[in-house]
Amino acid sequence: MQIVWLEEQITNKRIMKIKKRKFRTAVFLTILSVLLQTVPVRATEEDEQLPTGPDWAIDMDTAPEVVSESAILMDADTGVILYEKNIHEKMYPASVTKLLTCLVAFEHSELTDVVTFSHDAVFGIERGSSNIGIDEGEELTMEECYYAALLESANEVSSGIAEHVGGSIEGFAAMMNAKVQELGGSDSNFVNANGLHNDEHYTSAYDMALVGRAFVQNEVLLEMSGTPFYHIAATPAQKDEIDLRHHHGMLPGGQRGQSWIYEYTIGGKNGFTVTSRQTLVTFAEKDGHRLVCVVMKVEKPDHYRDSTHLFDYGFACYEDPSIRALIDAKAEELNPVQEEETPQTEEQSGGLTAGEMENGAGSLDDEGETNPEEADGQEEESREPEQKKSGGIPVLTIIVIAVVLAAVAVCVLIIYRSYRREQERRRRQAEIMARHRARKLQQAE
Length: 445
What we know:
It is a single chain. This protein has 445 residues and is α+β, with helices and mostly antiparallel strands. It has 2 domains: 2-42 and 395-444; 56-319 and 340-359 and 374-384, Beta-lactamase (3-Layer(aba) Sandwich), CATH 3.40.710. It is built from 15 helices and 10 strands. The protein has helices at residues 2-38, 45-48, 97-107, 119-123, 142-151, 155-166, 169-183, 205-216, 219-225, 302-319, 321-334, 346-349, 354-358, 372-389, 395-444; strands at residues 56-57, 70-75, 81-85, 114-116, 139-141, 229-232, 242-245, 265-273, 277-286, 289-298. Strand 2 and strand 3 (81-85) form a beta hairpin. Helix 3 (97-107) packs parallel to helix 6 and helix 5 packs across helix 6 (155-166). The chain starts with a helix and ends with a helix.
């Protein structure tokens, strides 16, 4: 019994030493985390270059917080940019591609043209992707095709448009890329007409704003993209009655309920793939001002929330006399009076870069065209002070918080395990004492 008792005492001492060592470690980690929290945190140079809000806005005081990874707000009539965030980042457009598809097709066909759908157009799209059930060999007019692409986002119809106008998907994609370059875009490469994901099919918010601006100036297409409902009648060449409903949730009268209706919306196109996430191009008009809003790579319903906030901010800019003066001045720069022999066109101007507005007069060369290299340089310079003022959570702060939580978790675990071991020790000691009393009773007998 004496040997058992000694072994028990040795075991208890070892347990206590382990408990003390772990407790000291937990206390040290806790104190360290508290000290780190009291030290002023200064972001590294790399952190300062990361945008924590908009890259630029014409009125930073009223600019909204936008969660979309990329966003832009552009005046459709002048090309002035009112807001931008990562507008030249590579993004996958999904079905907003169809705005460019319809724009290119409109310039190279008539509304009365008849599109006959091939086997590749009908069966060359992903199973389960958006379609209106057109069969191989069926026919639609080009006008009906536009409505099907813009309202129901019909992928097979978009492929049929491409084959009819470009002779092939590849041929039409080349026309799409040429059109974007004509409008002043340089961030895009389109390989299909419907926006189904392809790693080589990409664009930027800026390029899509240029496409949207050209789209708004086409009154026929604009009216189509703002139509909530359209009916395609049956014909001998297409035997089904087809009802088309717009999928854009901000369009008054659309099918998406009333949650995100924006009363000034006049058209637009939504898109989604697993890779691109939500993409949205929206056109709105108020008091004679027409705006194009593009948001990309965002989750539902933040694409509607971001767009609504951007439109509210943009229209408010026109109501502030001082801000309106800045907008008008930049509009005159982008659209000079036609006095020179080779005036600058709206398409060549493309739009106002962040650096130009931040530096007042902008960065224009002698012939009135924006110098991309100078503009990019000014943009980086203009972003730095804004990023220093922006909120954001520094990386070191996140690390400190993680250390604190880890320390708390370790303390809780140590306390719990100590409690379990203490209970086990008491149980074993009770058993030993019980056996000891039993032996004493036996000896007494």
